[in-house]
Structures
1.
Amino acid sequence: WPGKQLHSTSYRVPEPFHGQVVVVIGCGPSGTDISRDIAGVAKEVHLASRWSLSATSEKLPGHANMWFHSEIDRAQEDGSVVFHDGSRVKADVIMHCTGYKYNFPFLTNDATVSVDDNCVDPLYKHVFPPQVAPRLSFIGLPLKVVPFPLFELQSHWVAGVLSGRFKLPSKDEMVRDVTAFHSRLAARGWPRRYTHRLRDREFENEDWLAEQCRRGGPEGWRREMFDAAMQVMVERPENYRDEWDGGDYDHLLAQANRDFAAHCQRP
């Protein structure tokens, strides 16, 4: 295929795509945001998703130059991109908004941890490899989460374990926990690449970490605000960042501001 290909990690501004036909692979947060950003200057934007039906090929409401497709079947030497439903476009650019692969080239190949189908294994609670804990730990592996509150709790836990304030279970207990965790995922039919995808289990994980760290978990208003924001994002993907409805959600802002004010007043 003769066109240009790049990953979303390289994307900065839409202007380089002026007048071009762009195929965006992936309809997660990066794919949906970038496709709408590019649509303002591109000739056409075609968003391909593996979650759509195989016969999908439709124009997105509210956009004169955006289409939603099933997965790409193949790309051809004449510049065509062919989708599973048989439709095709002559594209200038393919933008891969397909996530990231875990990679730890600085670790020797000693079988302490391995990456298989984007699953880092074995890890106790996504952080500690049982064989070498606590000498090695991983911060920030979970995805589909609100990142910084979770990663701050992980960091607090690791620091407490290293300083001796918190204790880990025995190696055998951690291994059994990891085995049971993977068994539960397998029973749900989840592929290994979703091992670190917390999503609906995010606050449950944060509550567990907070308990280990002997501190409070996420505030109630933070959980409610997350749910409200996700609902608004689905309902208004074009402008959910720019407009605030107020009304039912104003009390959450008031609670957050009270907590922040109390925090800022501490010596």
Note: The chain has three domains: 4-96, 114-213, 220-265.
2.
Amino acid sequence: MRAAEILGVDLLEEPFLVPLLKSSLPSLSNAYQRGGLQEELFLVEVALAKERQARQYQEVPRELGCEECGEAAIDYCPACEGLFCRSCFERLHAKGRRSEHPRLELSMAGFKMKSESVQSQQIVHVQWHPFHDGQGLRYYYNFETQRSVRQLSRKELVWRPPPPLPENGREEA
């Protein structure tokens, strides 16, 4: 969190930068100890800029069609790795294990879910991010509530899909 503050990253707006910030902590720590922090901060800022740019290029053109019916796709399922119109998504994901699949907006197309084996080791609700403290002990931090905990309740360990997207891609006030 401190690295995000120093680098001017709003983690609520850009949560996809958390893994990059976490992976840069050891190099920032070493640079601080040897007196070369400014150079390392510059390198991390360059990496952040590249990550933001890569994120922009991952957007998918709107003219892509639904895999089922060919209509204009508006939803993406990272578990199926498929593009769907709203009616086909709802029909295919109405029951069974697919009902647990998240529905993302089309701009998120290309993102993949972790494999079952990786998920079972590290299933954490979307809002909680795992970290390790100075003693190597794991804790979880929620950037939205600015709370940290050593253990998550069973309810928070179960991954839940995000809420349905608002119609027309905009939230209603």
Note: The two ends are 30 Å apart (CA to CA).
3.
Amino acid sequence: MSQFTYSRLSHFLRISANKFSVLRTGTEIKPGPACCVQFTRCQRSVDSKALQERQKQQMAKGLPRQKPITGVKQVIVVASGKGGVGKSTTAVNLALGLIANDPLKSVGLLDADVYGPSIPKLMNLKGNPELNDNNLMLPLTNYGVPCMSMGFLVDDVAPIVWRGLMVMSAIEKLLRQVDWGFLDYLVVDMPPGTGDVQLSISQNIPVAGAVIVSTPQDIALLDARRGAEMFKKVNVPVLGLVQNMSVFQCPNCNHQTHIFGSDGARQLADTLGVKLLGDVPLHLNIREMSDRGQPVVVSSPDSPEAEAYRKVAAAVVQRLEEVNS
């Protein structure tokens, strides 16, 4: 309706300008159409600003108010624009690395990937969560890390064929109906992409920062950039990028090969103006221990790959301190 009104107003002014060839301004006579064009441009600018302001007000009304998770000090989300880049493995070893660096810290792990939950396998956990007296689910715990996942609530091979509203309801239950106790950090393993789950979590709870995981490959970096830009739009600090599968070292001759390219994530971090949190190598031990439910940070703590994850965890803590200062 406002566009229609504005169109009619512009049309009326053009007719008036043609009918009256001159407009009086003080004692001078100036051509009418030029003044008319200036007026319409000014009117268009005013209308555009007013429309944008109204849209912002309407969007603000529709957004949910952020409510902290009871007992949780800081939430760290681990995300990627694309699947298959080692995001879940990174999330698990990040949580364990935080504890390895500071055993006094309490860390929890939330699997928000409803369609493809990986935490039960990676953390070697099975079973259904019990309920406490307040009817809240109690997380399953291994390696000192309490975990919650949709994988605990469905059969291992059962496909989760849900529409968006059901997924949002499940995420709300995983966020609000779990007794986490008291945690210094809650690491959230996000699903790949930039969809409903990412927006729902970012808008419903205060997120201390996001960690973006990518391989150095160009096709993965494209989606990693989209993920980083999404978090910036919803005002979630991007703590930095993790360059996963950065290099492969032959176990026989120790020759290093950059299978997915070299320094792609480092270059993207520079472009985005964020920090590269660390490099994690492509190593057979990481894959084997993950499949056994024995993450390398706890099963091979003295290995170079475990040290890589601990360095990432230390960099994350440092970035959180910078963001909060």
Note: Residues 77 and 228 are 12 Å apart (CA to CA).
4.
Amino acid sequence: MRTIVSRLIRFKSSIPQTRFVYSGGGRYLSTDSNKIDEPFNVEEAETVHVPPPPTEKLLVLGGNGFVGSHVCKEALDRGLSVSSLSRSGKSSLQESWASRVTWHQGNLLSSDSLKDALDGVTSVISCVGGFGSNSYMYKINGTANINAIRAASEKGVKRFVYISAADFGLANYLLSGYYEGKRAAETELLTRFAYGGIVLRPGFIYGTRNVGSMKIPLGVFVSPMEMVLQQAKPLNQLPLVGPLFTPPVNVESVAKVAVRAATDPVFPPGIVDVHGIQRYSQQKSR
């Protein structure tokens, strides 16, 4: 960013000066005087360098996980300043982008974990979630995210994106703690961030997963299924089994839409289902 300032430079000029002489009868006669040297001011623009304005700062909760790491990378590619908070702290991924993220270690179940991590943050994306017993799933999917939403709201964060999950019919009952926690966090988000809260509800998220030193390309097996189920949208309306036809979605699509939702002020607040995620991911970023 450049700021233009002005300085005044004095020049000599030889411009004829006109004088008026009263001749009586209410009439004036003019005579040209000799050329005189009279200084006058001219403005010349001089460019000086000043520090650029601060960029948007994004905090990714759970940034070292499967979805979170893709969100961090997408945000960096968009030129954002990115930080992350998770229980393990710094990512173990040996990739160049990881060194450009500011890593914080903390537990969202502790109210003090977010204090420093939220300093200067303009938007948050939460990828926090997990499985286990029903009580554990409610805490990690619900309570932990609710704590983060409240802390971000009190800190004046503008936008908050929550990676939730699509309904899967009978699976909702089998994993009641998981879905009850997700829906509780959604309710808190849309209440606290009425104009800047976005919930993404993808189905199964696929992509290349890092397992130790190995990379497993799940897309090879799941991508064809996504293409088929995209054309079978009416099947989602079938009683009980309909949600099982929810198409899977690529992790890069989820990351792209999440970052856009967190940074684009005209991105509408509310719930975005898997079909909305697919649609937004195909649009050009603003």
Note: The mean pLDDT is 78.
